[in-house]
Amino acid sequence: METFTNIKMKILVIQTAFPGDAILTLPMIQELKKRNEHSLIDVLCIPSTKEIFDASPAVNSTVVIDKKGAQKNIFSFIKFIKKIRNNGYDKIFSPHRSLRSAIIVWLLGVADSVGFSNSSLPFIYKEVVNYNPSVHEVSRNLSLIGFEARNDNWKIRPLLFVSESSEKKVKDFLNENALTDFIAIAPGSVWKTKIYPADHYKRVIEYFIDDGYKIVLIGGMEDKVLCDNLTGEQNVVNASGSFTFIETAELLRNSKLLICNDSAPTHLGICADIPVLTLYCSTIADFGFYPYNDRSNYLSYDKLDCKPCGIHGFGECPINTFDCGKLLQPEIVFETAKSLIEKNGSN
Question: Are 262 and 283 in contact (CB under 8 A)?
Fold first, then answer.
C-alpha cells in the first residue's frame, strides 16, 4: 500500500462504533499521522466518542454523526453528507464495517478509500484489506494502512491528551479520598452477559480490603446503581458517573490495577499503561479485544459448549444459566490480580 509522507492530504477516518472501539482505533490513527505528518486527519464519530478522538494528538478535528438524533432520518442524513463533502477529503479509511459507513463512503464520492473485506458493500471501497479474525483489533486496524505486524510491534499504546483542569480534578479527588494504594474496578457493561456477577465482585473487593487496599469503582452514570450496590464496604469509593473517559484514564494512571469486564475500561487501562485484569463471561479473548500491554492478563471460564454465545453479548443469558460468569470463581480472580500487582510493583 502506498504512503503519502510529506504530502499534505486531507484524510477521513470513519469510526462510529462504541468507545472501546474508538480507543482501539487510535494506534492506527497515530501511525497514520506518523507516516503522513503533514496531512490533516479528521475522524467521523458518534457523540459519545468525540471526547476520545478530540484528545488524540494525531487527530485534527472530529465530525460528529448522531445516528439516533440529528441525522436519524434520511433528509438530515443527506444534508449532513453534503456538508462534509465540502471538507474535500483526499482519502478515507473505514475501520467501521457497517452498512451506514459504506453508504457514507459512497455518497462522499472520495476516489481513494480503504475498507475491510467483511465490510458491508465492500465493492464501495477502492481498496479492500483482508479482515483477520485471529489477531487483536489494534493489529487489524493497523493493517488498513499497510502496517505489517511483526512480533509485538503492533502493540502501540493509545495516546490521550489530558488537560490541566482534568489533571487537577483527578488530583483533588485522590487527595479528598486519601487514595494512594488503590485498585480500580469497573463492574459494568452495556451488555448484561459481559458483566461478572456482583456477588463475585463483592468477594474480590472484600479480599483486597482485607489486604489493605482501597477500592475505587468506575463507570458511567448507567453503572451507578450497580456500583452503589458494591459500595457497602468501608474503603470503597464510588466514582461512577464522576469522570469523563479522559479523566478516567488519568485516574487509572494512579491505580495499582484495574479489574474489569470485556468492555471499554479495559482499553482505558491500556491508555493509562497500568496492569489490567479483564474478566470474560459470555465473550472470549480470541475475538481480539484483550488488554495487550505486557503488564496485563485476562481470565475466562471456557469449558462450556455455549461459549461464546455472541461477539457483543446479550441482555440476558440465552440459556438462563450464566455459567460463563458464575463458574469463574472469585478466588482465581483475586489470586491472579494479586500476582499482577506483585509482578509489576509500583506504577
Answer: yes
* Number of other CB atoms surrounding residue 252 within 10 Å: 27
64 DSSP β-pair partners = 45
User: Which pLDDT score, from 0 to 100, does residue 199 have?
Assistant: 97
The pTM for the full model equals 0.94
SS3 content of the chain, % helix, strand, coil (to 5): 40, 15, 45
- Cell 505489517, residue? 148
Count of CB atoms situated within 10 Å of the CB of 133? 10
Cα(313)–Cα(85) distance, rounded to whole angstroms? 36
Distance CA 330, CA 204 (A): 6
Residue 241 near residue 220, CB atoms below 8 Å: yes
pLDDT for 6 equals 55
Is residue 42 within 8 Å of residue 11, measured between CB atoms? yes
pLDDT given for residue 344 in this prediction = 86
Residue in the structure block whose three cell numbers are 471460564: 301
CB 230 within 8 A of CB 236: yes
**Is the distance from CB of 29 to CB of 142 less than 8 angstroms?**
no
Query: What residues have CB less than 8 Å from 279, skipping those under 6 apart?
Result: 196, 259, 260, 261, 262, 298, 299, 300, 328, 333
Domains of the chain are: 10-143 (3.40.50.2000), 164-344 (3.40.50.2000)
DSSP secondary structure code for residue 43 in this structure = E
Residues of the chain whose pLDDT is less than 50?
1-3
Of 168, 19, 15, give the one whose Cα is nearest residue 95. Answer: 15
